[in-house]
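Bug #77: duplicate submission created two jobs. Keeping one. Sequence:
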Amino acid sequence: MSNRRRVDKLAYPDLEGYRPLSMTTQHRVGFSEVDPMQIVWFGRYAVYFEEASAELRDACGLSHAAFFDAMISPPIVSYEVQYLAPCRLDEIVKVTATLHASEAARLNISYQVHGPDGSLRVVARTAQVFMDMRINSVCFVAPDIWTNCLARWKKGDFACLQR
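Kept job's structure:
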């Protein structure tokens, strides 16, 4: 399977009227993140994705604090990753998190990790559902925190994050 097909396999479809929102962070690969071959241990990528996702969600009003205030918990229910090429000790990599609009009560986020040379190293995606913390139950209807975000998105409040 070509790298292009792998990337396409992990892409979320775009919802009409909503261009995806993206945020890119930089990360220097540290000694504690690599194995004896100086290659990033596969489990560390989840931390990279969380760092980029948190920056993106903060910019959209979907911070951890905002979810807590709304009594909504957004646990990850699906995590898929494709490792295309390794990242190595001391490399400065770029991690892009992209939020894809959904009419469902869930967050769809895709990720790309690029090496210092611009090469695509890792692609991934997560799906998060919304849970009402008061009753410890999945929200089958999108909570206000998500519908408000979608309304602001549609209005153009996040144009600076659109790719």
